[in-house]
Amino acid sequence: MFDRKTCCVVVVGAQWGDEGKGKLVDVLAERADYVVRYQGGANAGHTVVTGDEQFILQQTPSGILHPKAICLIGNGVVLDPETLFKELDHLASRGIVTAGRIFVSDRAHLVLPYHKQLDVASEKSQKIGTTGRGIGPAYEDKYGRRGIRVGDLRNPETLRQLLAERVERANRLLQMMGVAERASLEEHVALVEGLAPRLLPIAADTGRLVHRALQDGKRVLLEGAQGALLDVDHGTYPFVTSSNTTAGGASVGAGIGPTAIDGVLGVVKAYTTRVGNGPLPTEAAGEPGEELRKLGGEFGAVTGRPRRCGWFDANVVRYSVRVNGLTGLAVTKLDVLDTLAEIPVSTGYRVDGELSEELPSEVHQLERVDPIYEILPGWRKPLGNARRMADLPPEARAYLDRLQDLSGAPIRYVSVGTRRDQIIEV
Ligand code: IMP
Ligand code: MG
User: Which ligand 1 atom is at minimum distance from the Cα of 43?
Assistant: First the structure.
């Protein structure tokens, strides 16, 4: 992915998240000097299997598992400092040194306990199926211009006043929502005062760090979270997350200009999954869906919820190629399909009898589409040991060729297992 002319690469999820971005970023981070998270927060669950060891990272960039990579949390992230430090402590207990190579934007907004309380309370009526990590309320505060940013911790006197106003407001909202729970000012003050001595030394102008790195010819990987169909603008609104998960968000959220980005890699599962509510046109009902879930181990990394499973949806990926400007695809979990005799792939939708290769903008329309399937033959061989395209059986290559033709972007990587080494560079 990186070469003389390609120094700044974005990796995004091209479906509904959980495509295996963690693994791809881990693999690419070996060649990167910087890895930057730029949106979302501790709602992400990036699973990385290095060898015999497995890590699930929610707030820390996946590059942290490579000793030389410098990891940044950009201004576009809503930072849950408790989760960050819990993860850093956990990594330390497993022998991973993070000191001196993780920095957080002082412009990033904080996710505090009252955000989580509000998130859980609003789910009682809104039923988006959020992760309950306070993401929506934290972004609401950001855009409502009442957020608390990392840099605010530098001014303890004004911070207490800020917290008092925010906690009071949160409690008014909780009352309106009819829940009994209340946020405690003293707990918030104690929490933030306790975190400041650890957070402030790693607070930085991360956009400037990225800019300087690129000027010095370093390689920068921008690590997306969630997926394009969960983007607040381009996703299946209102069943979306609260950030711009598409590649445009990388520029804003990392604090660099769009012209600094040289390539965008979209990660797609060889099939489709979604966790949370909202339309999923190619969802496989009953037995086939259950089987995919079992074969792929499709349970949420953050919440443990069973993921909804279905077949590859070309309309979704084509759309994703367009709204992200994808320059390449990484197809993951191809090995999950190893035992299937036949694999359905949706090539388009029928909408009120008419063929459509686009994604409707309203969820009500998307709920009504009729996917058109093509049935491709399975390969019925284990792919886990393949390291080159030539190692793949002809049916698996034909399957990939079909996905590439339907999607309109070249496949650059194929992942055939959870381990670091189980990857084919095309
Ligand atoms: P929120 O991001 O917690 O507000 O949740 C909004 C929607 O995005 C829900 O459907 C979540 O299940 C989904 N979501 C959030 N983060 C992830 C993720 O990392 N992977 C998959 N789905 C996610
Ligand atoms: Mg995940």
Answer: 16
Q: Which residues contact 423 (CB under 8 A, 6 or more apart)?
A: 23, 27, 387, 413, 414, 415, 416
Residue 93 CB-density burial (10 A; 0-12 exposed, 13-18 middle, 19+ buried): exposed
Report the half-sphere exposure of 152 (CA within 13 A, side-chain side): 15
% helix / strand / coil in the chain, to the nearest 5? 40, 20, 40
Q: Is the CB of 224 under 6 A from ligand 1?
A: no
Is the CB–ligand 1 distance for residue 88 below 6 Å? no
How many whole angstroms separate alpha carbon 162 and alpha carbon 147?
9
Three-state DSSP state, 273: strand
Which residue, among 386, 298, 287, 268, has the nearest Cα to 340 in the 3D structure? 287
Tokens (6 digits) for 217? 């010819």
**Residues contacting 185, CB < 8 A, separation 6+:** 163, 164, 167, 168
The residue to which tokens 């209340």 are assigned: 182
Q: At what angle do helices 185-199 and 113-126 cross, to 10 degrees?
A: 120
Q: Residues of the chain with pLDDT > 90: what percent?
A: 97
What is the pLDDT averaged over residues 130-137?
A: 97
Active site residue 18: yes
**Tell me: the pLDDT tens digits for 36-73?**
999 999 999 999 998 889 999 999 999 999 999 999 99
What is the average pLDDT value for the chain, to the nearest integer? 97
Whole-angstrom distance, CA of residue 362 vs CA of residue 64: 38
407 lines ligand 1 (CB under 6 A): no
Read off the amino acid at residue 424. I
Q: State the pTM of this model.
A: 0.96
Question: How many angstroms does the Cα of residue 163 sit away from the middle of ligand 2?
Answer: 31
pLDDT, tens only, 386-417: 999 999 999 999 999 999 999 999 999 999 99
Q: Which of 18, 26, 106, 119 is catalytic?
A: 18
- Those residues whose C-beta lies under 8 Å from the C-beta of residue 247, and which sit 6 or more positions away, are 10, 12, 224, 261, 264, 324, 325, 326
Q: Which two tokens stand for residue 300?
A: 């949420």
